[in-house]
Amino acid sequence: MKKILPTSNAIIAVISGTLVLLGYFFPGVFGSIQSVLIGWAIILAAFALLLGIFNLALVHWKKTKTAGSSKVYSIVLLISLFITIIVVSINGPTGSFSLWLFNTFQVPVEISLLAVLAIVLVYSAARLLTRKPKWYIVLFLVSVVVMLLGSVPLFLLGEVTPLILLRDWLAHVPAVAGARGLLLGVALGTVATGLRILLGVDRPYGG
Amino acid sequence: MEQVLDLINNFLGLFFILLCLGLILFYFLSGRNRPKISLREIQAFRHLRREVDLAVEAGKRLNISLGRGSINELPGGAAFIGLTILDRSARAASNSDRPPMATSGDGVLTILSQDTLQYTYQSLTAEQRYNPTNARLTGLTPLAYAAGCIPIIQDEYVSANIFAGHLGTEIALLTEAGERSRSLTVAGTDSIHAQAVLFATSDEPLLGEELYAAGAYLGAGPAHLASLRMQDILRWVFVVAILLGAIFKLLENLF
């Protein structure tokens, strides 16, 4: 059984993947089966999400039994999870109480984290200066400074046209060229990863 | 007319996929009996291998963050690479006191990471080491995911963090947490914005296609080497095509 299951998993995965891929190129022939398979995948993903939340609750349930101050956070998480599930089950995902919960707790906390993220980015850029100077680090920092100075009116100087022109050139020529190069690499890597899974060589589903 | 263009596009797409498939198969079959192929030095992977050994010796663990890439969508490609890294790291650190930890921000990815760990330990006949809570869902939105990962980086005796998957600019919070806990961070993502952030914040950023070479560098098998060679060849084809296009455009404007 231990040997049969991985093989059958691989066969199902390879056939399903191939049919979905063919659905993109021949929508008339494989379009309907592609829709059915993607529909099944979405349903399975929803159940996987439930299992993931159960996993999250289990991890924090275990943490509440350990000593240490961090268990307070786990207790808060479990209580919040329980209250949210009860409220959303009764009120629906778009009900006024559910939205109140989301807008009062989730949104402000995430906005605070975004603010922290901005500080972290500035701090990291400054920390780059403390590293051993290399030409590409200097280039990176100079580009960041030019982009920042070219984006806002400067104190006493107002808008400096050469800086704005330089910023526009940086943003539209070297940055776009570099980003396209990186995207090409990412695209080729994604295709290669997908094909390895279609060939059944990579089996992230336990085989 | 539109239908004809769609048809041409579809066939071009199919031709491209078949070309990739053919190249992978060719290099896979021709490379099986060859001695080891030398790969370009990527410092991040060298440091990662060393850090895995050090983690085993020091009784610490690795944290592999797989990001939020749903496998139903394009970011799934990067997530699968994260799973490959998880498999290789779990194998390398199988005799460590503390097994590797995987975090993800998507339900399917969490299950796949549990499955990867379970299968890896099964294949090493070390099933008793598998613990489903070592593969965790930490949050479903980008910042919630980061907020859930930070305590793991800081409190779970982590010696190295590997961020491999679909992560946005929130990755800066994670690399900063790694920096503060004095653990190595090796990070790669498919997001261009996050790669810019990684350049400034990570010890060892993996840029562009480097993330997708992880399997080949960590010894995941000949198929990974074959697909890496396919990527190399097609990248050069693209480079030549883009340069020729630029030259022709320039000539057109000049004359």
What's the SSE blueprint?
The complex is a heterodimer of chains A (207) and B (255).
Chain A: H1 4-25, H2 27-64, H3 71-91, H4 96-128, H5 135-151, H6 161-172, H7 174-198
Chain B: H1 2-31, H2 43-58, E1 61-67, H3 76-92, E2 101-104, H4 107-123, E3 135-137, H5 142-155, E4 158-166, H6 171-180, E5 184-189, H7 192-201, E6 204-206, H8 214-217, H9 222-254
Parallel strand pairs in B: 1-2, 1-4, 2-3, 4-5, 5-6
Helix pairs in contact in B: 1-9, 3-4, 5-6, 6-7
Describe this structure in words.
- With 207 residues, chain A is mostly helical.
- Among the domains of chain A are: 1-66; 133-200, no CATH class.
- Chain A has 7 helices and no strands.
- The longest helix of chain A is centred in the N-terminal third of the chain and has 38 residues, at 27-64.
- Chain B is of the alpha/beta class and 255 residues long.
- Helix content of chain B is 59%, strand content 13%.
- Chain B has helices at 2-31, 43-58, 76-92, 107-123, 142-155, 171-180, 192-201, 214-217, 222-254; strands at 61-67, 101-104, 135-137, 158-166, 184-189, 204-206.
- At the A-B interface, helix 1, helix 2, helix 4 and helix 7 of A face helix 1, helix 3, helix 4, strand 3 and helix 5 of B.
The gross shape of chain B turns out to be globular
Give the percentage of residues in beta strands of chain B: 5-15%
Total number of helical segments of chain B? 9
Helix-residue proportion of chain A: over 70%
- Which regions of chain A have little confidence, pLDDT < 50, spanning 5+ residues? none
Q: Structural class of the secondary structure composition of chain A?
A: mainly alpha
